[in-house]
Amino acid sequence: MSGQGREHRSERQRARSGAPRGSEPVTPSGRRELAAAVLAAVVAGALALSAGGQAWAQVTTLRPAPLPPVTGVLSGSDAAPLVPAAGLVLLAAALALFAVSGAGRVVVGLLMALAGAVLAWSGLRTLTGGLDALARELSGAGDVASTEVSVAWPSLVIVSGLLGVAAGVLVVLRSRGWPAMGRRYERTPADESGPGSRPAARPETDEDRAQAAWRALDRGEDPTEPTPGDGRF
Hints:
This protein is mainly alpha-helical. It has a domain at 26-179: Butyryl-CoA Dehydrogenase, subunit A, domain 3 (Up-down Bundle). The chain is built from eight helices and three strands, in the order ααββααααβαα. The longest helix is centred in the first third of the chain and has 25 residues, at 28-52.
């Protein structure tokens, strides 16, 4: 096949898929990649929001005798306030992938990768002793006897963060050939002919001619007489 034939075939594929001119034609693998990126962003965001509402740590504070120790609980939103926010960003990005295309999707992919990195950092910080300062603030004037950190929820946040980063990188690198929404609502070449253009006239039928004859009779005219322009001279 010649180079011109391949170019025409590529243009036809773009027209059928709704991809803008100058972009790569949409392929089945592009649709699967878009679905995978959206699903990954939704799962990562849901995991982050779910983990952010759970108890991440239990802090026991000693008080002067004879007062008993006091135990407090740190939720995920208390221990890592950025976790719920990053989860919401990922969920919003999943919807935005359908609404934008081209450079807009690249920006969304970068935001997804950034939100995933924030999630991974928040979970890793919790597991490496990042809650010590927060535990001292919670204890007030007392001494912190122990801080028991739940490994499950911060680890889940790390997983969601890695998933968000992977989805963001996929969007940045591969979104050029993905399908876009709303192409069916764009103006067609026929619509762009101008506001003064008129649709093609409908051919006159026997019923139209009969109705015209009756209207002529109502006006007192003879419908059998030729009129200028009807071609019967």
